[in-house]
Amino acid sequence: MSETPYDVVVIGAGPVGENVADRARAAGLSVAVVESELVGGECSYWACMPSKALLRPVSALAAARAVAGSREAVTGPLDAEHVLHRRDSFTSHWKDDGQVEWVESIGADLVRGRGRLDGPRRVAVDTPGGETLVLTARHAVVVATGSRAKLPGLPGLDRARPWTSREATSAQAVPERLAVVGGGVVAVEMACAWQALGSAVTMLVRGEGLLERMEPFVGELVAEGLADAGVEIRTGVSVTGVRRPAPDSTVTLELAGVGESEADEVLFATGRAPRTDDLGLETVGLTPGSWLTTDDSCRVTDVADGWLYACGDANGRALLTHQGKYQARIAGAAIAARAQGRPVPEDDRWGAYAATADTAAVTQVVFSEPEAASAGLTLAEAEHRGYRARAVDTDLGSVAGAALVADGYRGRARMVVDLDREVLLGVTFVGHGVGELLHAATIAVAGEVPVGRLWHAVPAYPTMSEVWLRLLEAYRDGG
C-alpha cells in the first residue's frame, strides 16, 4: 500500500473536523479530511439544523398565539407538509455538495471512506471502491468523529426499529402516536416538535423530572409548557421491554410495575456514546469505544509524543456542536504553533491554546416552548466544586419587555454568584425566546465581569434584557 503524507489528518468532516481543517490550512499546513458519511456531519443533517428547523415554526406559532390581536389571526395548527419541506431544505435534502465545495475551497483534500488509526501517525481509509489508502501525519491526527445515540439493551429493541435522534429529525411522515423515552434535551425538543406537528406524544421518563442537568425550575416550567400543549408526561417510569411483531405494526412498551403503553413510533433519547468503537484505538494503546481524555489543547493525554488530538463529542468534554467547534479552533491553533516550533503555554487560561470554556462557561439552549438557556454552572455544580456560591432568582414575567413579548409571560432567571470574588459562575433563563438573551450571560461568565461593573451595562427599555437589572437588584437587596 502506498502512503500519502500530510501535515494533519482529520478523521470526521462534521463542523468540528471542518474547523480544525480550516485553522490548520490557514496556518499553511497540508490537511486531509476523512469522512465515511455526509460531509457536514451529524449537526447538518440529523441534529442541530433539522431539529431547529422543526422547532422554529412551533416557537413562531406560540409567539403569535401569546399576544392579543395576533392570537385572533391564527386560524389553524401548523402545516406539517410545509414544515417538513422547510426542514428538508435546511439539510440540503441530505446532499453534501455544498459542504464538499467548502472543504475544497480551503485547500484541504477530502478522502471518502472509513478511516481508522493504523499505528502512530497513520490512518488507513477503506474507500467506497474497495481500496485501502494509508495517510500519514507529520504533525497531528485529529479525531472528530462525534457521538451516536446510545440505546439500552432491552428485550425486543433490536427488532422494534426504534427512532433515535436521526430518525426523529429526518422522518418524512407524522406518526399518529409517538412515545418518547427519556427526559433530556433530545427528548424534550422532539416531543415539542412532533406534538405540534400532530402526533399524540407520551414521554416516559425514568427520573422525576425533565432536563435534570439544568436548574430544577427549568424542567418544571418546560414540563408545564409541554403539558399545556398536550404532551403526556409520565415520570418515574422504566421501560423493560419492547414488542413490534411486524414492521408496520404498533410498538408495545413494557413498563416496570405499571403495565404497557402503545405507540406507532418510539423515540429512544437515552444518551450518547462516542463514535470510537471502530477507530483502531487499540493500535495506539487505547480502548475501543472509549471517550478520549485530552488536555486543554485537545491533545490526547494517553498517547505518547503528542500527535493525537480529539475534538468535539469524541472527547466527552461538552457534547454540543458549538463547544466542539470552539475546541477545534483551539486545537487548530495549538497544532499550528507546535508544527512551527512556537511555544504553547501549559497555563493559557486567557489565550488561544486552551479550551477553558468547557469547564467554566459551557453554553446551551433547549429550543422547546418555553426555551431554556444556560451559561456556566448551576448552583448545585458550583457548590459541588467547592465555591461559596449564592443563587439569585427573579420572575422574568415581571420585566416590561417580557410582558410585551407575550400576554401573561411565564419565565424565570437565575444567576449564581461566587461570593468570594463577586463574579458570576452561571446564569440560567427559561421562557419564550430566552435563547437570544444568552450571549450577554456568556460574556459575563467567561469574562468574569465583576458584579459591581455589571450595574454599568445598562439594558435598553423596554427589552427582556432588563432582567439583568432585576437580578442585580435582587442580589443587592439580599433576595
UniProtKB/TrEMBL annotation:
UniProt record similarity statement: Belongs to the class-I pyridine nucleotide-disulfide oxidoreductase family.
InterPro entries: Class-I_Pyr_Nuc-Dis_Oxidored, FAD/NAD-bd_sf, FAD/NAD-binding_dom, FAD/NAD-linked_Rdtase_dimer_sf, Pyr_nuc-diS_OxRdtase, Pyr_nucl-diS_OxRdtase_dimer
Required cofactor names: FAD
Entry annotated with the keyword Flavoprotein: yes
Positions of the Pyridine nucleotide-disulphide oxidoreductase dimerisation domain: 363-468
Transmembrane segments: none
Keyword annotations: FAD, Flavoprotein, NAD
Pfam families: Pyr_redox_2, Pyr_redox_dim
Keyword Transmembrane helix: no
PANTHER family in alphabetical order: DIHYDROLIPOYL DEHYDROGENASE, MITOCHONDRIAL (PTHR22912:SF151), DISULFIDE OXIDOREDUCTASE (PTHR22912)
Protein known as: NAD(P)/FAD-dependent oxidoreductase
Family matches, as SUPFAM superfamilies: FAD/NAD(P)-binding domain, FAD/NAD-linked reductases, dimerisation (C-terminal) domain
Entry superkingdom: Bacteria
Domain FAD/NAD(P)-binding: 6-323
Species, as recorded: Streptomyces lycii
